[in-house]
């Protein structure tokens, strides 16, 4: 059993990799990221490759091994890809297609979990499900959708068994999350946790899909072990900013909600603040889950990444 | 006004190019194909580039000019792409994306007509329309769908005004059409025209979408001049093999239907012989048309390509 993780030092990648390292049943891991090997990934079972998946030499180094399970998470974030679509294409599309092509040429018919995104949808009013016709409104989403199609085609060809997992904005990203339009969701949670004032760029009634890093990793791991192939929409809690702020007061034990001021930016509100209901009955039947409650979402979101493995 | 045509020596490309050459209002054409310049394309207004769009040098030569209108027709046919998906990717996907990226970098915001295909759909029972969720059952169709998405994204970015035109199998292709699973439709028409015996690989009741080369070119030209952007499904006649054979007897003046024998191949019948109704009301409203009747389809299909310009 050998596992490949791309984007292994990223927000989701590092949490996932810690989970894998924490599992004694996982004998060998190849981890790829632009970042150097972090101290917590010093385990001998981890071969760390520092570089981009769009670099041929890195790709060659990856494929010194064959893999049974692949988590393909690396990507250029949406706002950056929108500004630099050539970079977006090279990393998010071409390198992903190269990776799938290389995997298809191996003898193992690997399980491939592809981190897709809700960026494949356009803003809509009705409930959104994996059957909603994708109509990407940003280049990042267009590339994600194209890779989903390529993965489905490799699966049809019998070269791998692929599942594309559409992730919502996952909370709470550490630090300033440049390039992520939904960064305010994480910033809000961190500010509330720290008891610091926060100026929210969407209104109290702005509605988003909320999923914690703990639940995201749990779902990705689940995607790796089930047999189902295709494209799935991860469950997430459908909550307003106010829902989260109020629940936070209960969880935190202190009423800090007055620290949150609202100065809605119409562009951010329109793109990230009007999410409709999710219809994820199929995904729940497959065993995918959201955080269960606002209180659990907040606890899970503020769990330090290094605690996830434990 | 400068027009680019890729795949200009192909079955559809050559018919389209003849139409363009025949139009004195078209001042300049750049035509690209793997084949050498044909004698009929000797017009001084035509710059002919012999080579593949997947060749950087050819791409550089194309972009010595800027374009107002682009017909992107070149592709590796479906059966060949299925056997050699890397070749399919290089020509049908990567080269198409490169072409769009180069067009996006020009200053003219060109009109781009992309020859997509009904290969984006999976076999289905209900009426098919451009809103039917694409689910390609061959790699060729997966790549076509991916380019549709890329073209829509470039259009959204304001870099071009793109229209993806989903073509059915167009009749009647000359000679042995290797690589096209639907080749039997053209072979049948040629055999009937020549009064030769034909062994049909689908049953008399097999139902397909029929569109002649004359109507295909007319629709592509129309796509070039209207303002509508997005993905459209071309109208086509929904006919059984028997419908065509019987109508042929009337058109041809002789009853040659007895020359047709049926030896259905289950694989071909399943893939190419069970097409459902088309729902193309939107496309008809935009001015796209089928051949109008079986009799006209047959006449248009058997029009020699070199007569189309006339």
3D structure, described in words:
The structure is a homodimer of 310-residue chains. The mean pLDDT of chain A is 92. The first copy, chain A, is 39% helix and 18% strand. With 310 residues, the first copy, chain A, is an alpha/beta fold. Chain A contains eleven helices and twelve strands. In chain A, helix 1 (11-21) crosses helix 7 (213-225) and helix 6 runs parallel beside helix 8 (241-252). Chain A is globular, with a radius of gyration of 19 Å. The interface between A and B is medium-sized, with 22 and 22 residues.
| Shape category of chain A | globular
Tally of helical segments of chain A: 11
Look at the helices and sheets of chain A and give the structural class.
alpha/beta
What oligomeric state do these chains adopt? Answer: homodimer
